[in-house]
Structures are given as C-alpha cells and as structure tokens.
Design brief:
About 0% of the residues lie in helices and about 55% in strands. The protein is mainly β and about 190 residues long. The strands form three sheets. The protein has a six-stranded antiparallel β-sheet with strand order 1-6-2-3-4-5, with no helix packed on it. It is flat, with a radius of gyration of 22 Å. The mean pLDDT is about 85.
Amino acid sequence: MATTADFRNGMTLDFEGHLYTLVEFQHVKPGKGGAFVRTKLKNVRSGAVIERTFRAGERIAEARLETRPMQFLYRDGDDLVVMDMETYDQMHVPSALLGDAEIFLVENMVLTLSSLAEQPVTLSLPNFVELRIAQTDPGFRGDTATGGTKPATLESGATVQVPLFLEIGDVLKIDTRTGRYLERVGRA
C-alpha cells in the first residue's frame, strides 16, 4: 500500500477495481481544513483520464507492473504472437491490447509488454517507427509551392499524409501516438 506522500508520475495504482497510471498530481494545503492531493489518473486499459482528489495520507494500492521487450512475430487470428527477447518464449497476446496503434505494426518490430501477475495488461509500440512507403501517387512539378500533401500507404497498411516530393520506397519516421509523418529517413 502506498500513501499520497509516495505519489510520483508514472506510478500504477489499483483503484476502484481498475488499473490507473498517475499522470499528474498536486499537493494542496488550503488555509482552512485538511490537506489533500488532486490527481489525474489514466486508465491503463481504456486510456480514459479521470480526476480524483485524495485526503493527505490516504492509502491506495500500488500495482507493480512488469515490463519487458517483446518481438512481434506474426498474427494468429485475433491474437499477436510475440517472443520474449531474453528467454525466446513465445506467447499469444490479444491484438486489442495495442489499440489504434496496431496499424503501424510490422513483423519483427520490438514492442513493450506490461503484465501484472503474468497476465498481459498493455502492449505498446515505440513512440516512433520507421516504415517504407508501399504505394503513393507521384507528385507533380509545381505542386510544392502550396506545401501540399498526398496520401501514402505504408508497408504496414496504414495511410498517412505526406509531402508531395516523397515516392514509393522512401522510409519515413512516423509518430505512433499521433499517426503523423515526421521526416524522411532514407530509401529502401
């Protein structure tokens, strides 16, 4: 059990039957009355953010999540087959744990698996991935004056808006949190 004095950003709490990550907290000592802690908690599974206030010194159950790198091997129905990078053990993980970021997933990508008591809780991609353009329309000379964009389909199947000068085979850096193109990093 942890108290409000133990709070730190990124801490995982077992609160009201759900797992939450502590996003932000603030100790408040009003001139009248007892001190309290105002918090923002993010649900680990759904991503929903809630605000809760705790009395100073209140006890909350802390959840100890184990995180480890896993390599994505292949899809098996609704599951993803991943391999532990240290023990080479393979396991099936529901693809729903990845959420919307699944569209940027390609074979052999290294993911981060968080588990509680050997039960997978979250699976996350790196913040930035490098993917090759599989299909896009050619850009035309003169179109660049407006700084326009065009859709490009990546090797993972995701479609992102890219500048007109990019071509099939270019390798792009993509932010998996926003789904946006950041820069060209090379040619395949």
